[in-house]
Amino acid sequence: MAHGADRKKPYLRIEGVNKSFGSFHALKNVTLDIAEREFVCFLGPSGCGKTTLLRAIAGLDIQTTGRIFQAGRDVSALPPSARDVGIVFQSYALFPNLSVIDNVGYGLARRSTTRESRRGRVAELLALVNLGEHGAKYPAQLSGGQQQRVALARALATSPGLLLLDEPLSALDAKVRQYLRGELRALQRKLGVTTVMVTHDQEEALTMADRIVVMNAGAIEQVGTPAEIYGTPSTAFVADFIGAMNFLPASVSGAGRARIEGLELHVPALNGTVMGTEITLCCRPEDIVPADDGAANAFDTKISAIEFLGPNLRATLVPKDAASRSLTAEFSATQSRRIGIALGGTLRVAMPGDRLHVFARR
Fold first, then answer.
1. pLDDT (tens digit, 9 = 90+) per residue, 57-88?
2. Is there a contact between 346 and 324 (Cβ–Cβ < 8 Å)?
3. Cα separations in angstroms, 108 against 46, 101, 225, 328
4. CA distances from 268 to 233, 256, 257, 277, 297 (A)
5. Do residues 68 and 17 lie in contact, with contact meaning Cβ atoms separated by under 8 Å?
6. CA distances (Å), origin 109, targets 21, 42, 105
7. What are φ and ψ of residue 234, in 5° steps?
8. In angstroms, rounded to a whole number, what is the distance separating the alpha carbons of residues 45 and 216?
9. Does the CA dihedral 110-113-114-119 come out positive or negative?
10. Among 120, 156, 290, 325, which one is most buried in terms of CB atoms within 10 A?
């Protein structure tokens, strides 16, 4: 079954795509539907196949087997010039000997348009990316963030139906990257262009995408909204790769119950699981909460380490009844002051059953 968008006729359809380089299988039977106007991020570690998939969509590296459709048209074997795509590369790939105006208008110059219409289109695009006053400059005279905007304007010049972004913000420093990702997302919404972006940055994907495609070893692990990917990971890999997660070896000790050494927890997701089955329980640091004696899944811990993170405090907790299994918990600074978290102190916490994820033993 396809990892699909909700629409019956997707704008971009990838069917059973495989890509091999000799004996190495870079993509393994990838099937995916992307709706018109969607912003989709391919996310995963280095070597997972996300850039290879993007290049197959662009026609830069034709897939070994499988088909790709854009707006109902089979583009599987077409070269990039015959596909309705705009591309922004990680390196920007600007022409150093051309001005900003000529870089942006490069693709238009090859079309049968008048010089006046090209000049108007370039001016419109430069205004769109807030570079209207920089048209006469050359790439070397621009900052990294400005070069990225020029590359984006150039990719949009021909009004492509599909915009492909290959880690476009990775070369920028953190503050510029954070600012530009907001600008890029706002621009995509304004234009309504279907967009696919490759990134290895979780925060980038979570803040920008309508849906995230998490990839691992050439295959798709999970497709979903940022909230779904973060809140309900479907595999242990996704749980581990996206955000921070506590992994706890456990065994099923009864109906909807699991045991971690001397600590027993109520885990609703385990209902119907055979007693004695070895599992891995997962819990986000922010889902470990201070608790009173009457709370479900409450237990006593010792605070063995504290990290100050500005608005938050990260604590390493050692459960009294499972001393070999430390937990990482995060509390707001205000909450930390209120409950008096201190190194070497004790803290009673709870792991709410509905926030516990269950996977087969890793």
1. 999 999 999 999 999 999 999 999 999 999 99
2. no
3. 35, 11, 36, 54
4. 16, 5, 8, 15, 12
5. yes
6. 36, 32, 6
7. -90, -15
8. 7
9. negative
10. 156
Q: State both tokens at 281.
A: 């329980």
Span 266-305, pLDDT tens digits: 999 887 788 889 999 999 999 999 998 788 999 999 999 9
Return the DSSP state at 297: T
Q: Quick check: 283 and 357 in contact, CB under 8 A?
A: yes
Q: Which of 178, 179, 213 is nearest to 195 (CA)?
A: 213
User: Residue type for 17, please?
Assistant: V
CA distance 252 to 250: 7
- The DSSP output letter for 326 is -
Q: What amino acid occupies position 53?
A: L
Residue 27 tokens, joined: 């993509």
Task: Say what angle helices 174-191 and 144-156 make with each other, to 10 degrees.
Answer: 20
Structure tokens, 207: 């803040």
Torsion of CA 95, 96, 100, 105, to 10 degrees: -20
Radius of gyration of the chain (CA): 25
Rama region for 297: left / alpha / beta (φ>0; ψ in -120 to 50; rest): left
Q: How confident is the model over 207-250, as pLDDT tens digits?
A: 999 999 999 999 999 999 999 999 999 999 999 999 999 999 99
70: number of Cβ within 10 Å:
21
Angle between the N-to-C axes of helices 115-128 and 144-156, in degrees from 0 to 180, rounded to the nearest 10: 130
**Alpha-carbon dihedral 174, 179, 180, 186, rounded to 10 degrees:** 150
Check: CB of residue 168 under 8 Å from CB of residue 88: yes
Whether 246 and 314 have beta carbons less than 8 Å apart is answered as no
